[in-house]
Amino acid sequence: MSARFEEIDWRPTPMGEISLRRRRDPMSGDDVYEVKLGDEYLMSSLFTTGEIELARLGLAELSEGPLDVVVGGLGLGYTARTALDDPRVNSLIVVDTLAEVIDWHRRGLVPLGAGLASDPRCRLVHGDFFAMTTGDGTRGLDPDAPDRRFHAILLDVDHSPRHVLHPAHAVLYTRAGLTALAELLQPGGVFALWSNDPPDKEFGAVLAEVFTDTAARVVDFDNPLQGGTAANTVYLARRRNG
User: Fold this and answer.
1) Cα–Cα distance between 170 and 130 in angstroms, integer?
2) CA torsion angle for 47, 58, 122, 134 (degrees, to 10)?
3) Sequential DSSP letters for 100-116
4) d(Cα 47, Cα 51) in Å, to the nearest integer?
5) Which residues have C-beta within 8 Å of that of residue 60, sequence separation ≥ 6?
6) What are the backbone angles phi and psi of residue 118, rounded to the nearest 5°?
7) 3-state secondary structure (DSSP) of residue 151
8) Distance from C-alpha of 113 to C-alpha of 105, rounded to nearest angstrom
């Protein structure tokens, strides 16, 4: 049995101090892993339904394989793990701006880390997803093949299109930013986005200007800390053919 609370790692980063913590849930006795950036909670293994559903709902929009997929935001690895559990996925690139988070997975400090780092289909890439999709100059989500296009891009970094972790991220959620991202998808490819906020009609309208078959799916899950249920949103959008 682990200690009741342990700070596994703490490091300064350009975005602020990041820490990986493990605590024992007094009700279940299970270990709960948490990631904090400054005073903000980025991820908890207690709440993973939204991250899992991001991959499940996004890939469900695609009928054929093999699939080449990108996940923006590694976190504790639940979106990436769910993607790799789909037998159609041939390759997965996971992009994270924090080298520290990638290091946790490669060192096996988080429960899913060793499995992701050792899967031959999966590459953990240290990079700025937003600069790689919307930045000036060379763009591309595969450092070895900048012109490569993907069947699905699954993004879970910001709290929502309105509540971003860094001001530079905001451009992605505009028409120009989404158009740039769409160019990295195969025709008919799918963009899926996790949000901690309820469906945003204004953002949904911008999404529909760029993509087709757009939707906002509400994902409910149990909230043992507050009682009852909570909800996330998963936006789904398909690149037009041609």
Assistant:
1) 9
2) -100
3) HHHHHHHTT-STTHHHH
4) 8
5) none
6) -95, -5
7) strand
8) 4
Between the alpha carbon of residue 124 and those of residues 48, 204, 237, the distances in Å are: 20, 30, 25
Distance of alpha carbon 63 from alpha carbon 138, whole angstroms: 31
Q: How far is CA 76 from CA 56, 93, 140, in A?
A: 16, 15, 24
Q: What is the arithmetic mean of pLDDT over 100-114?
A: 95
Pairing outcome for strands 31-37 and 16-24? antiparallel
Give the torsion through C-alpha atoms of 189, 195, 199, 205, to 10 deg. Answer: -50
For residues 163-188, give the mean pLDDT: 95
> Which CATH homologous superfamily contains domain 48-238?
Vaccinia Virus protein VP39 (3.40.50.150)
Beta strands in the chain (DSSP E): 5-13, 16-24, 31-37, 40-44, 67-72, 89-96, 122-126, 150-155, 185-195, 212-222, 229-238
pTM over 0.85: yes
What span, in angstroms and rounded, lies between the C-alpha atoms of 10 and 22?
12
What pLDDT digit, counting tens, does each position of 22-44 carry?
Answer: 988 777 778 999 998 887 788 88
Residue type, 135: G
pLDDT single digits (tens) 184-201 = 999 999 999 999 999 999
The domain spans of the chain are: 48-238
